[in-house]
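Fold Annotation — chain and its backbone

Encoding — discrete vocabulary of local shapes
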Amino acid sequence: MRLRLFLTVVVGFVCSSLSAQVQHAFVSDLKSTPKDFLNVFTAPIEWDGWDLAIGSGVLFTSIYLYQNKDQSSDLFYFDRLNSTPTRKPQPKTYFEKTYFKAMEIDPKYGMYSLGGAYFLSGLLGQTKIRKTSLACLQSSGVSQLLAVVGSYILAERRPSYGGEMRYFQDGGRGVSGHAAFYTSFSGPLNKLLTKIEPDDSLQEKTLKYFGKGFIYGVPLLMSYGRLRNKLTWQQTVDHPVPAHHAWSVFLGAAIGYSVGEFVAARTDLQK
């Protein structure tokens, strides 16, 4: 009780000591967030031909992977990253060790970091970082909401529980929330760090293209980890079973990338 009171006093003191400009920035973000969320859900109304083509491609690819989900498990994950029945799995290379450790990090710590970056950058008057942090928070929040709704509608069980498809039930795993979370940051980070400007030199453009590969590639690699059952990294199993089927991971990643790009396009880093 005393700790809560102390924290309340500290927060109140900090808020009261903020400059008028900083207070206005936070209040403005707070007011605009509900409208930003609504814009994401009404975005399909404004889709052009290119958007419809991409959406159709995602839909048909997801359907194809779903119809071949038993075969796709063998295609998209490898025994080396899962285990074999004859030996206890051990990561061999530095990359594999780093990859396994990264996959065990709880996504909530990413949200805590973003919240801290948003608040700190606001206090220091770093508008671009504040707006990018807010855009990441918004895109990841909307992506998670869509993943939850999608998993309720497409309430498929995990492959380890038989992978049975059910509809409109709690506890479904039809859309990978982890994949949606990882990929939702790419759009805002790309706009802040690697957006190509007309006056960029050839060297700057080259570096930014490499940066784009990192910003968009790492979340995809993290999403791929959902095709691996983490238990197979810790102990031997008779048959490696992924946490999700490939179609679920693909659909989650597509949602994250799409929402991130939409939010980034609507974010003005100068205000």
Q: What stands out?
A: The CA atoms of residues 201 and 207 lie 10 Å apart.
